[in-house]
Amino acid sequence: DVDSEWKDGAETKRKAACWKFFMCRYSEIHPEKIEDVYCKICGPEFTIAVSGNTSNMRSHLAHVHKDIFCDMISSAAGSGAGDSGGSGLCSGSGTNTDSQQTAITVALLPPVPNERRDALHKL
Q1: CB-neighbour burial class of residue 10 (10 A; exposed 0-12, middle 13-18, buried 19+)
Q2: Tens digits of per-residue pLDDT, 21-80?
Q3: What does the mean pLDDT of the chain come to?
Q4: Pairing between β-strand 6-8 and β-strand 22-26 as defined by DSSP bridges
Q5: Which residue has the higher pLDDT, 35 or 109?
Q6: Which of 15, 27, 44, 104 has its CA 20 to 30 A from that of 117?
Q7: Residue pair 34/18 in contact by the 8 Å Cβ criterion
Q8: pLDDT number for residue 46
């Protein structure tokens, strides 16, 4: 039974705000250690590794659930709680402008070969 081995992250003693969006499973060998988590929104089909911090969970929220991540960051910043610092992901209206979209597209393209560098490698 999936529900019996997974515990609500919000009910753990962990303080980071992102825990309320995840279910966690404890290690059978080390019962105090969380082995993996899954996002309550995405479901248990996709688990996220935990390695002693919340980076993977925060990354998942930032990339898959940006609106929730930004709400979490703004709430944490306003309350003085931990888990703040959106790394600029949450600035603006939440939608990409044409210039932002162009920058994203360019960043995803493979680098253009440097003709001079290529010519030197042929020598």
Answers
A1: middle
A2: 999 999 889 888 899 999 999 999 989 988 889 999 999 999 999 999 999 888 877 765
A3: 75
A4: antiparallel
A5: 35
A6: 104
A7: no
A8: 86
CA distances to 1, 20, 74, 84 from 79, in Å:
37, 16, 9, 10
Backbone angles phi, psi at 23, to 5 degrees: -105, 145
Q: Is 36 helix (H, G, I), strand (E, B) or coil?
A: strand
Q: Which amino acid is at 1?
A: D
Q: What is the pTM of this model?
A: 0.62
Name the residue type at position 46. Answer: F
* Burial of residue 114 (number of CB atoms within 10 Å: 0-12, 13-18, 19+): exposed
Distance CA 123, CA 102 (A): 36
